[in-house]
């Protein structure tokens, strides 16, 4: 029962998304209505109200969005995507008021690199990626291509960025590697006529463009870290700078202010306010991650800045101080957990950090950073006094949930990284699993932990641990194709089940007489706890492994997610899918039903956190 066959009634309601693809150049746009921000995440374009944080999702792409553009009045949006070698990449034209797609424009191969609307909104110009190498002009009203042309004279050249003139529908500029051209539209002959710009001895890769308000000149940010001023009429280099102190790691974003000053974002995460003609920085602020977008709100009294580390900042022009308004993970999220008995907060973990979020406002409340390490699993202790975490350097670290202070570290807990972790319900012990397949039981003291026992039965990484409510038994899944029920009083194996799969997830039914498993064979298995015998097997997915599952508190339903990017809600006793959630753009890595069964939170390998309305409230 795949998503295509499901009607609207069976679709899960997506309530909110925490996520922003900060790697897309100029991906963050302040809409001309001054009320909304537009930004991409995976296959979705998000329209978010600045004041109320209410989100609207534009879904129509089959793969990740690679560029976004908004027309001058804000009536239209356009977004381009990437696809696979040999396939065509779509551009979707959206009606902003109706919040729906009005056309799909398909010509480019593999990737759409950049988009720009003409000032009257009559035309849209699109740039193909390196495998495509063409520039195409589209008629917005007729929703069809007018003409196209190769974007660079040399086969080695490829364009990265595009900008329309501010006053004429007939002129636009493209820049990139070994190419910088001014194009004129010859409509009667349906031709685009390019003129190569002359830069003399300079060799530069143009990364971003800004056109002067009167179109007399345009400015090019380069990967070398300087800015070129080009004359639009003569196509000659006018000047360039700064000659000394260039922008470190290249100019990655460039915007012209009404005052004649420039906002320059660079690869080292600096945002600078610069004055011409030598582009010297008067003020600069250090941000987290390479600056990828600068978008003015209205006339530029306020502006928004997005970075590659998925941080979103608001600035006011006179103060020039950053205010972090939005943040999210920029790497794959490995785990998500709720504290015992509350749906208010949840925690996620990824490369470098653990973050605690407020569920309804989506605000980040706490960030615990361990540089250059990856956190693979987290859990709240039931008494709420600590967050325990499993790391790829083989250590278990415990932090306080309020301040994020490190309480204790268990050094060398496992030799090939700690891959799974679970505390007992009385908070006295921690059970950990490692990449080498060992299971270890630790006794928690005030400020340190003691190893009680080590159990070696699994031959490969332990992927999931669940502890029984009486603290006498636990269940482990491993990628060696076994699930083991352990006696954690006598530290012996009670039962073992074998399957031709790499087990990814396992869950006790709340009544604890059965458990369910899943993994790379896409099957969902039901098993008896008493003797480990198989009860039934369901087909969980048409394509790709199932990486995550969770059972509701009443045991009537469970939820699964995996490489097919679909979230599925199942009836436990019938074994049928009741609802499907479509919204993730990459593999779902983990999910949880909140303790009060109000929502489901799912996380994925592209760093997105999605909150869904739970369809069977208790």
Question: How would you explain this protein's 3D organization?
Answer:
- The protein is built from no helices and 55 strands.
- It is mainly beta.
- Among the domains are: 18-59 and 287-328, no CATH class; 333-459, Methylamine Dehydrogenase, Chain H (7 Propeller); 499-618, Methylamine Dehydrogenase, Chain H (7 Propeller), CATH 2.130.10.10.
- The chain has a seven-stranded antiparallel beta sheet, with no helix packed on it. Strands 1-55-54-53 form a four-stranded antiparallel beta sheet, with no helix packed on it. The chain has a four-stranded antiparallel beta sheet with strand order 2-3-4-5, with no helix packed on it.
- Strand 28 and strand 29 (323-327) form a beta hairpin.
- It is elongated, with a radius of gyration of 27 Å.
- The two termini are 25 Å apart.
- Residues 1-6 have low confidence and may be disordered.
């Amino acid at each position: 029962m795949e998503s295509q066959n499901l009607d609207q009634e069976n679709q899960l309601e997506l309530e909110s998304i925490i996520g922003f693809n900060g790697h897309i150049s100029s991906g963050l746009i302040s809409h001309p209505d001054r009320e909304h921000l537009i930004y991409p995440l995976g296959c979705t374009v998000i329209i978010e109200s600045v004041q109320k944080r209410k989100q609207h999702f534009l879904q129509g792409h089959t793969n990740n969005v690679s560029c976004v553009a908004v027309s001058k009045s804000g009536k239209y949006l356009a977004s381009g995507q990437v696809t696979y070698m040999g396939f065509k990449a779509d551009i979707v034209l959206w009606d902003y008021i109706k919040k729906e797609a009005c056309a799909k424009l398909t010509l480019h191969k593999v990737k759409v690199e950049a988009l720009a609307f003409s000032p009257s909104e009559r035309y849209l110009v699109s740039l193909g990626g390196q495998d495509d190498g063409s520039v195409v002009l589209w008629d917005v009203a007729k929703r069809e291509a007018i003409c196209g042309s190769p974007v660079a004279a040399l086969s080695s050249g490829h364009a990265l960025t595009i900008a329309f003139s501010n006053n004429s529908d007939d002129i636009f500029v493209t820049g990139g590697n070994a190419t910088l051209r001014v194009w004129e539209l010859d409509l009667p002959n349906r031709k685009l006529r390019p003129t190569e710009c002359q830069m003399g001895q300079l060799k530069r890769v143009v990364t971003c463009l800004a056109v002067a308000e009167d179109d007399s000149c345009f400015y090019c940010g380069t990967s070398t870290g300087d800015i070129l001023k080009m004359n639009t009429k003569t196509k000659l280099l006018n000047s360039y700078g700064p000659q000394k102190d260039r922008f470190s790691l290249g100019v990655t974003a460039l915007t012209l202010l009404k005052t004649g000053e420039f906002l320059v974002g660079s690869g080292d995460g600096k945002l600078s306010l610069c004055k011409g003609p030598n582009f010297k920085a008067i003020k600069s602020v250090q941000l987290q991650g390479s600056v990828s977008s600068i978008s003015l709100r209205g006339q530029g009294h306020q502006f928004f800045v997005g970075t590659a580390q998925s941080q979103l900042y608001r600035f006011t022009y006179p103060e020039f101080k950053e205010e972090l308004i939005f943040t999210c993970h920029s790497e794959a999220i490995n785990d998500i957990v709720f504290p015992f008995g509350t749906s208010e907060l949840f925690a996620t973990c990824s490369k470098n950090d653990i973050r605690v979020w407020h569920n309804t406002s989506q605000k980040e409340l706490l960030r615990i950073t361990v540089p250059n390490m990856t956190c693979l699993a987290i859990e709240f202790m039931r008494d709420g006094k600590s967050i325990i975490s499993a790391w790829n350097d083989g250590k278990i670290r415990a932090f306080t949930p309020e301040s994020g202070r490190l309480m204790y570290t268990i050094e060398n807990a496992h030799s090939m990284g700690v891959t799974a972790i679970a505390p007992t319900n009385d908070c006295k012990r921690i059970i950990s699993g490692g990449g080498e397949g060992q299971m270890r039981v630790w006794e928690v003291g005030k400020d340190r932990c003691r190893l009680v026992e080590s159990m070696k039965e699994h031959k490969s990484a332990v992927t999931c641990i669940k502890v029984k409510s009486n603290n006498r038994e636990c269940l482990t899944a491993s990628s060696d194709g076994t699930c083991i029920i352990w006696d954690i009083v006598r530290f012996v194996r009670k039962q073992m089940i074998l399957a031709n799969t790499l087990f990814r997830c396992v869950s006790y039914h709340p009544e604890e007489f059965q458990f369910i498993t899943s993994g790379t064979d896409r099957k969902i298995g039901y098993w008896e706890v008493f003797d480990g015998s198989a009860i039934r097997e369901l087909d969980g997915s048409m394509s790709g492994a199932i990486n995550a599952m969770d059972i509701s508190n009443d045991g009537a339903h469970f939820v699964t997610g995996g490489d097919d990017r679909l979230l599925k809600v199942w009836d436990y006793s019938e074994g049928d899918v009741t609802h499907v959630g479509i919204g993730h753009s990459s593999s779902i890595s983990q999910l949880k039903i909140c303790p009060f069964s109000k929502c489901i939170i799912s996380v994925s390998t592209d760093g997105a956190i999605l909150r869904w309305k739970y369809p069977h409230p208790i």
